[in-house]
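lol forgot to send this yesterday, sorry. struct tokens for the thing we talked abt
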């Protein structure tokens, strides 16, 4: 699958200081790039009220993604309390 990284996601990861969290995020992104089917990905849930928007749980954070026609846009990486506020 083709994976695109939005500028908002790049800004979010620049703010990270936790090395364990960065390692977990990197592993999730590698799995996302290598996956044939998005729905076999663990910890993936659809965001209610939004079509084609999903979130992946990584520790206390959520990775917000948008999927359309085999292309995945990685949009945000924020704390779990904030994902529904900033991810639209």
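and heres what i got for the seq, position by position
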């Amino acid at each position: 699958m083709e994976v695109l990284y939005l500028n908002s996601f790049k800004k979010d990861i620049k703010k990270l200081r936790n090395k364990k969290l960065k390692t977990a995020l990197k592993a999730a992104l590698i799995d996302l790039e290598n996956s044939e089917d998005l729905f076999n990905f663990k910890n993936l849930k659809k965001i209610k009220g939004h079509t084609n928007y999903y979130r992946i749980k990584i520790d206390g954070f959520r990775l917000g993604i948008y999927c359309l026609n085999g292309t995945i846009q990685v949009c945000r990486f924020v704390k779990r309390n904030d994902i529904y506020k900033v991810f639209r």
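The domain at 2-85 is CATH 3.30.2310.20 (YaeB-like fold). anyway ping me if u want another try
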